């Protein structure tokens, strides 16, 4: 009876999803009727009907008839002209994107309607208390938890940012449509808005015509913060605090946050020559600029809200001290109303960008409503001052020290930033001289211009402003917050000058540099409101701002640096040769460690300032110099990819120490912030197996162990890579080696009484370590998640998980509760040693099978190039870095992303399952089937590994993969290889189902199966079209229209598969 009820509930739940899919499809068809004509739309519908019929027959098990219909569909597609193929590709690509929007909305709405949300703070806190954990233990664990989500620019986000914004607008419209109080007129207006958005999407070029720069990628990451995370974080922290209060009686401390954010965008230079030291500096400054800009908007709104006069004595004294600092009554008046907001001019000599580079304020909301900042589904009335402040004297004129406010509109609209430069609306004025040649006469001339611009404005401005208050009636909160805004404005202006390499005359006390400096006056206001009985006001917008400052700091996301270990060896080799010390790269490990330790203990710099080195080496040294100038206040970790020895870590420590000595010597004072954490990244199977030994060796070195205690609070961070290990040995072997490596690293740190944080380099797809966050964290080895975790979120997953505030809140909650459970109730160890032995055996067979196909079969490389669009992926312009680390055509130097991306396009998803079937079958044939079933039921790690493989097998499609081979693979032997691999896929499916006990794939996740099946009538024709276009393009490779059509099919298939690489 329960099963029937669940089925009915699921049908009801999916009815809304089906309705929205139908609505968006019909609206797109209406747009297409106008844009391309009825005749072509009818042809689209005929093809869709053929595809739907074939899918229905396959679901019913009538394979032969389904194959006939698919051949008929392929025949129809092969007869299309190039123009028809291009339009067909665009239409079906948009169908799939719109279905994705409906699916996301369906998930959000389903979550909202649940009375008891699984994996929520409320549920997990309650679960832990009932399992015997004390309230104090729960409270301490939550308050001390440190989770950092690191956003990366890995090239897997297929959609242009312009289209992403339009998709967000449609999502908001669907959310608005769920309101029960809409009138018929409201709904008609909403439909008109949807039609406008879909028309705009259709008339927009889907393809990036140029590769993004690293700064473009960084800007995209900052926009995720602005459009979503900025709203989501206070909501999430309120949810945590309320759950803590309910279950422990104590709220989350104001300056405590269990989650923070990091970024690789603009710092990841591994194999990407476009990420230079200057790019890293500019991106870091840009991130600071965005943080301060967002704080200015919040302080403006808070000043309007906190208009009361009652306050604590301490706050009153602070307000009077601020007034005393002013030199004239006019200045006092301005300080109360709108202090130091600057003039409206922009930097001189810069042309305004031809296109907007940032989402305009409220552009992501429907025209028929304005949603509140809290992300709620009902609009909130915007009173004057909550988002809009009257134009004050300083908004209309320049301040005495020539500060610049970049188009501060009522809603604090976004500023125009392009490639690290700031747009200029006064292009008729001459550009200031570069740093060093800016003469005093030029400065005087500029100040005269500013003074003249004030003439005639002051009297008019007084009519717009209230009369200045007398001292007994001052609004103290407004004075204090006005002073905060004044310093924030100066901080923002200073960053603009630094980005433009212009003279900066601000003293350090004029602006905010650290998080604590900004928190101090905000906490003063909070304590004052609480002491005056206005706690309800204190716990509103002010608490949200304090929590934002705590979470985002002054940089929004600290920037990690990443470089390949060989580049550091090359740099040290050049230095040792220059100093006649020998060739560092030729020394053995012990000699390297002896040299590095000796130099690290030395108090003198190693690198002479006059050293002449090759450009590649100079870039490495310049990066360390920038790291020294910015310090740990702006930067996070220095990650060493392809790390394999202790010397790889000490090499970075030495180069970092040397750069800090040089910079502090030039500055005449210590470098800002502390030294960066140095994090080895173990990626290949060989390096993973040696990870524990490397950490033991490092921690046994006196200098290093003392350094860790002194500078990093006895904390060692280690990163494990999922992508290259999967490409190296197959998904199953990679998963097991990663598990054992984490165990070994955690044990090594425990032996040396050092706390460890594991940093997981997970991709979006299963083949690169992706999958459900909760499942992944809950299946980590016991003791590897002790209240701390770092994890990357890459490419398309950033937008999918954090692109909308509601989705972001849910993801942040899942991260928090999963880490908490893994800390307080670690997953079970393997019940018996036999299970570990079986895993070793499965892994060995799986790895051997995988490598014999991928690396040892002489036909495989040619088969891979023919059967997939791998060679054509480079035309996508979706990332700033090359697709290969080195100029080799082999699989070894191909990056993991295009490797997985190409197989995902053909629906074969080979990297996620190849070798798994052979491993499971080999063990089952030795009589261990029952053992595997027991492992699946009782060992979380094994269960999650099998479940993820089963999930990806549900997305694989043998008939589609076969069609690629039949049309595109020319050689008989290579076609036979494809047939053999398809048989291997069937074997894998059978073995996985035997182990899981499921009757069919995804039986334990009917919702996922239903969603996948709903996409197939649109996805299958896209694959058939891609095959036809590839066939034509490979005999006419200079045809740009064919190339465009192919790239659009790649976009559409990525949307349908819901991941890329």
TrEMBL record:
Its cofactor is Mg(2+). The active site is at residues 154, 727. Keywords: Carbon dioxide fixation, Lyase, Magnesium. The keyword Zinc-finger does not apply. GO terms for cellular component: cytosol. SUPFAM superfamilies: Phosphoenolpyruvate/pyruvate domain (SSF51621). GO terms for biological process: carbon fixation; tricarboxylic acid cycle. It holds the Pfam family PEPcase. Residues 324-438 are annotated as: Disordered. Residues 324-335 have a biased composition (Basic and acidic residues). It comes from the Eukaryota. Its EC number is 4.1.1.31. Residues 336-348, 417-438 have a biased composition (Polar residues). Gene3D superfamilies: Phosphoenolpyruvate/pyruvate domain. It catalyses: oxaloacetate + phosphate = phosphoenolpyruvate + hydrogencarbonate. PANTHER family: PHOSPHOENOLPYRUVATE CARBOXYLASE (PTHR30523). Homotetramer. Belongs to the PEPCase type 1 family. This is phosphoenolpyruvate carboxylase. It comes from Salix viminalis (Common osier). The lineage of its organism: Eukaryota, Viridiplantae, Streptophyta, Embryophyta, Tracheophyta.
């Amino acid at each position: 009876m329960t099963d029937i009820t669940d089925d009915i509930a699921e049908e009801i739940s999916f009815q809304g999803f089906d309705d929205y899919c139908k609505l968006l499809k019909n609206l797109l068809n209406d747009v297409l009727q106008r844009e391309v004509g009825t005749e072509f739309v009818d042809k689209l519908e005929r093809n869709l009907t053929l595809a739907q019929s074939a899918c229905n027959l396959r679901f019913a098990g009538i394979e032969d008839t389904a194959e006939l219909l698919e051949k008929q569909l392929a025949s129809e597609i092969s007869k299309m002209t190039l123009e028809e193929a291009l339009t067909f590709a665009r239409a079906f690509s948009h169908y799939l994107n719109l279905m994705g929007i409906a699916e996301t909305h369906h998930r959000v709405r389903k979550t909202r309607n649940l009375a008891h949300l699984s994996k929520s703070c409320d549920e997990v806190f309650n679960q832990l208390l009932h399992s015997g954990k004390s309230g104090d233990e729960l409270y301490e664990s939550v308050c001390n938890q440190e989770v950092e989500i690191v956003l990366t620019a890995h090239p897997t986000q297929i959609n242009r940012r312009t289209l992403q914004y339009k998709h967000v607008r449609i999502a908001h419209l669907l959310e608005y449509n769920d309101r029960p109080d809409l009138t018929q007129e409201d709904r008609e207006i909403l439909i008109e808005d949807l039609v406008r958005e879909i028309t705009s999407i259709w008339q927009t070029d889907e393809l990036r015509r140029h590769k993004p720069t690293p700064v473009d990628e960084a800007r995209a990451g900052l926009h995720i913060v602005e459009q979503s995370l900025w709203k989501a974080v206070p909501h999430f922290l309120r949810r945590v605090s309320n759950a803590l209060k309910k279950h422990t009686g104590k709220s989350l401390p104001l300056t405590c946050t269990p989650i923070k954010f990091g970024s690789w965008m603009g710092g990841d230079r591994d194999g990407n020559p476009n990420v230079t030291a200057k790019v890293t500096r500019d991106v870091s400054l840009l991130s600071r600029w965005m943080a301060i800009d967002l704080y200015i908007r919040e302080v403006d709104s808070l000043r309007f809200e906190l208009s009361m006069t009652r306050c604590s004595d301490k706050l009153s004294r602070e307000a009077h001290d601020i007034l005393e600092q002013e030199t004239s009554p006019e200045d006092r008046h301005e300080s109360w109303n709108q202090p130091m907001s600057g003039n409206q001019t922009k930097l001189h000599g810069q042309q305004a960008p031809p296109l907007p580079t940032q989402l305009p304020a409220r552009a992501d909301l429907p025209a028929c409503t304005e949603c509140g900042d809290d992300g709620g589904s009902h609009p909130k009335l915007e009173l004057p001052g909550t988002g809009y402040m009257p134009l004050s004297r300083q908004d209309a004129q320049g301040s005495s020290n020539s500060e610049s406010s970049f188009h501060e509109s009522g809603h604090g609209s976004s500023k125009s930033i392009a490639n690290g430069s700031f747009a200029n609306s006064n292009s008729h004025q001459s550009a200031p001289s570069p740093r060093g040649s800016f003469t005093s006469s030029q400065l005087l001339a500029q100040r005269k211009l500013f003074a003249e611009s004030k003439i005639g404005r002051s009297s008019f401005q007084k009519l717009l402003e209230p009369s200045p208050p007398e001292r007994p009636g001052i609004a103290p909160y407004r004075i204090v917050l006005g002073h905060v805004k004044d310093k924030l404005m100066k901080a923002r202006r200073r960053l603009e000058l630094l980005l433009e390499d212009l003279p900066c005359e601000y003293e350090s006390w004029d602006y905010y540099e650290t998080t604590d400096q900004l928190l101090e006056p905000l906490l003063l206001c909070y304590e004052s409101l609480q002491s005056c009985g206005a706690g309800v006001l204190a716990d509103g917008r002010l608490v949200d701002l304090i929590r934002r400052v705590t979470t985002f700091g002054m940089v929004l996301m600290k920037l990690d640096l990443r470089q390949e270990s060989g580049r550091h060896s090359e740099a040290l080799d050049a230095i040792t040769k220059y100093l006649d010390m020998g060739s560092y790269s030729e020394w053995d490990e012990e000699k390297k460690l002896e040299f590095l330790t000796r130099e690290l203990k030395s108090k003198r710099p190693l690198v002479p300032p006059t050293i002449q080195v090759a450009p590649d080496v100079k870039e490495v040294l310049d990066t360390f110099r920038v790291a020294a100038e910015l310090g740990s206040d702006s930067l996070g970790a220095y990650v060493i990819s392809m790390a394999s020895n202790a010397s790889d870590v000490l090499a970075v420590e030495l180069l970092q120490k040397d750069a800090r000595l040089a910079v502090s010597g030039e500055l005449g004072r210590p470098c800002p912030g502390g030294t960066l954490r140095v994090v080895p990244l173990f990626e290949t199977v060989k390096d993973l197996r040696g990870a524990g030994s490397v950490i033991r060796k490092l921690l046994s070195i006196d200098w290093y162990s003392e350094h860790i205690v002194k500078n990093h609070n006895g904390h060692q961070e280690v990163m494990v890579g999922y992508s290259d290990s999967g490409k190296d040995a197959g998904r199953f072997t990679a998963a097991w080696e990663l598990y054992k490596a984490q165990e070994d690293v955690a044990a090594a740190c425990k032996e040396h009484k050092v706390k460890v944080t594991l940093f997981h380099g997970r991709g979006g797809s299963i083949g690169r370590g992706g999958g459900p966050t909760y499942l992944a964290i809950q299946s980590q080895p016991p003791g590897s998640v002790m209240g701390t975790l770092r994890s990357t979120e890459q490419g398309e997953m950033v937008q999918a998980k954090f692109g909308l505030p509601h989705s972001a809140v849910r993801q942040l909650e899942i991260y928090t509760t999963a880490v908490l459970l893994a800390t307080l109730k670690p997953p079970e160890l393997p019940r018996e040693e036999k299970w570990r032995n079986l895993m070793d055996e499965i892994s060995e067979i799986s790895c051997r099978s995988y490598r014999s196909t991928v690396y040892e079969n002489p036909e495989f490389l040619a088969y891979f190039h023919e059967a997939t669009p791998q060679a054509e992926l480079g035309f996508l312009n979706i990332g700033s870095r090359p697709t290969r680390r080195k100029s080799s055509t082999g699989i070894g130097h191909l990056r993991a992303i295009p490797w997985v991306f190409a197989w995902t396009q053909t629906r074969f998803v080979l990297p996620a399952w190849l070798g798994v079937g052979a491993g499971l079958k080999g063990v089952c044939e030795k009589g261990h089937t029952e053992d595997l079933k027991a492992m699946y039921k009782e060992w979380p790690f094994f269960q999650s590994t099998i479940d993820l493989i089963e999930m990806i097998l549900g997305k694989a499609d043998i008939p589609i993969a076969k069609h690629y081979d039949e049309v595109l693979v020319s050689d008989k032997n290579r076609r036979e290889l494809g047939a053999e691999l398809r048989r291997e896929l069937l074997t894998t499916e059978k073995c996985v189902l035997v182990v899981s006990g499921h009757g069919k794939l995804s039986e334990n996740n009917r919702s996922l199966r239903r969603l996948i099946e709903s996409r197939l009538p649109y996805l299958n024709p896209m694959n058939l079209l891609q095959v036809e276009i590839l066939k034509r393009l490979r005999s006419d490779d200079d045809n740009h229209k064919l190339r465009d059509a192919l790239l659009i099919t790649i976009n559409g298939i990525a949307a349908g598969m819901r991941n890329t690489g």
